[in-house]
Amino acid sequence: MSYNNYNILVTGGAGFIGSNFIRYLFEKVNFDGIIVNFDLLTYAGNLKNLEDISEKYSGKNYFFEHGDICDKKRVGEIFDKYDINMVVHFAAESHVDRSILGPEEFVRTNVQGTFTLLEAARTYWLNNNGKSDKAKLTFNIHNSSLTKRFHHISTDEVYGSLGDMGYFYETTPYDPRSPYSASKAASDHLVRAYYHTYNLPVTISNCSNNYGPYHFPEKLIPLMILNMLDEKPLPVYGDGKNIRDWLYVEDHCSAVWKILTEGEVGETYNIGGENEWENIKLVNRLCEIVANKMGKDKDYYKKLITFVKDRPGHDRRYAINCDKIKNKLGWKQSVDFEKGLEKTVDWYLNNKEWVETVKSGEYKKWVEMNYDKR
Ligand code: NAD
Ligand code: TYD
Prior knowledge:
- The protein is an alpha/beta fold.
- Helix content is 43%, strand content 15%.
- The protein has one domain (7-215, 246-277, 317-338): 3-Layer(aba) Sandwich (Rossmann fold), CATH 3.40.50.
- Strand 1 (7-11), helix 1 and strand 2 form a beta-alpha-beta unit.
- It is globular, with a radius of gyration of 20 Å.
- Mean pLDDT is 93; it is low at 130-146.
- Bound molecules: nicotinamide-adenine-dinucleotide and thymidine-5'-diphosphate.
């Protein structure tokens, strides 16, 4: 299968999931179209995440463009320069703790940024390839000669918090509770509004917690692994009984690709690991895996576990029902959690240079100012 008529704008492609997605396309799908990675390179964006891909494909199938998704002019130029016909929108401020300490950037990037991209897609596709009646300002998607898609990446956190029972479905009403999830919910609403109002050919996915290579060390799994290696405390919030549903990042990437190529316009798809873990149980298991790799006693790192003050508004449990994408698009998870954790620990042990680069500089200052005070 050739994808050489796909000119995909990947926003946030230098971040954790975006960089894994770009690598997935080149290495697993044999993608032969064009990928434009548009990224502001905030503290979370790192071109080192894609050094190998850049060496192989830069200037042929892969292009990096530095820029802000809130910058209307710059975003418009990118659509024009590469004749973009697909958008996969990962760029966001993504960390709940940061959203509690400073919500403004979340509203700007996640809401204003998504709006700017939607407007660019609407304007560019309408003026250049939108062959429908311009006066109606809508897309005649079904008659369009070339597929166009705007795929928006979102989170299960928009659905709020679950008790002991039940799952999030695509039909679950939104009930976001952190500035992060509220800003993602707002962006999802805008994307849906552009479908209903302008027929913009959108799809949305809401995914559970990802883990795997290139995960920024402020998030639970990499933070714990790296703190163990430094013999630093392992901060577990509250009673440690909050539950998350974990999915290996490459499985998220395969789901997004399925939706982009086979998903139905206007639809939302939940993506999840069907893999619920209490934080404290997960941290204990990670301690054992790292101890085994480091040749230590099984319980060696557990003494570092430290219960700290809970996160304000900490959602108790997330659990995704992903029957829709499984039944309609034939997607399924492929990485078993135990193997995925092993692979992840190995990756952090084998990529010390990446770890050192990421942990120094801006992030180091942020940790000293915020986390080390706990
Ligand atoms: P990340 O924080 O690792 O990466 C975000 C990327 O966006 C970075 O490269 C950053 O430089 C870039 N960026 C930020 N602001 C920008 C701006 N104004 N303009 C251009 N680029 C900008 O995030 P991630 O964990 O890879 O998450 C990617 C997406 O997936 C987000 O939309 C997030 O909400 C969603 N998501 C994440 C998870 C998860 O577990 N990490 C789960 C579900 C959904
Ligand atoms: P995180 O990786 O921040 O993802 P999210 O908040 O988007 O789910 O956190 C995952 C879980 O781990 C969440 O319940 C908060 C908890 N947590 C800790 O207990 N300690 C920590 O140091 C961090 C970063 C998270």
